[in-house]
Design a protein that fits this description.
41% helix; alpha/beta; 7-stranded mixed beta sheet; Glycerol-3-phosphate (1)-acyltransferase; 7 strands
């Protein structure tokens, strides 16, 4: 499965290199996600899509437990025109496994070692100017704790405020990492991952933190276990 995933990821990475429009990139990203999850016998079940403007432009905000989370979100947004540019750390850009795909699929490089963030915010602005949305995992990295949500970093709020972006909260309700391990190690069929879209959050709302707003939207308490 690892060899197949490597082949598939790089195959679509090279195909994406030839894609120049948001429509082309979205189509290929969906095809990649659908092919991979179908091979893993994983079905994505989405709820709350009525809250999403299919032509809208958002800061998409999701929890993060698994390397397949972007694929899950891609599948859930199939019937919209939303192409989310993923904020990706430098390590992914030069990864043997993901590098070609990440560099060509529509991402924004975040170099956390850089003292200057101007290039990052220029890339965000350019992507938005081209009609795309921006996707962020506000926990900063995959959550490997025994809780459904890790502490949010402040960067997501800054992106939304600087660009006056409505914030669309997304909750991958199922622990996708556990499902992925089951799919690989046990090859079970009919596996399901549930994903929920919440009400849009106003970027200018300062009455609560973004993490608090997210927790309230999906009723996630701090003492919950997953």
């Amino acid at each position: 499965m690892a060899l197949y995933s490597l082949y598939l990821t790089n195959r679509f990475g090279f195909r994406l290199r030839r894609a120049h429009t948001n429509v082309e990139k979205k189509k290929l990203r969906y095809e990649y996600s659908d092919t991979l999850l179908s091979r893993l016998n994983i079905e994505v079940i989405a709820s709350g899509l009525e809250k999403v403007d299919p032509d809208g432009q958002y800061l998409l905000l999701s929890n993060h437990r698994s390397i397949i989370d972007p694929c899950v979100i891609e599948i859930a947004l199939k019937n919209t025109n939303i192409l989310g540019l993923w904020v990706a750390k430098k390590e992914l850009y030069y990864s043997f496994f993901f590098g070609v795909f990440v560099r060509n699929a529509g991402t924004i490089l975040l170099d956390r070692d850089s003292k200057q963030m101007s290039h990052f915010f220029k890339a965000v602005k350019a992507g938005l100017g081209n009609g795309a949305s921006v996707c962020v995992f506000p926990e900063g990295t995959r959550n490997k704790q025994d809780t459904p949500l890790a502490e949010f970093k402040e960067g997501a709020q800054i992106i939304a405020v600087k660009n006056r972006l409505p914030i669309l909260p997304i909750h991958i309700k199922t622990n996708a990492n556990k499902i992925l391990h089951t799919a690989i190690n046990k090859r079970e069929k009919d596996l399901k991952i549930e994903i929920e879209f919440g009400d849009v959050i106003d970027f200018s709302d300062r009455s609560r933190s973004l993490e608090q707003a997210y927790r309230e939207t999906f009723k996630i308490t701090r003492d919950a276990r997953s």
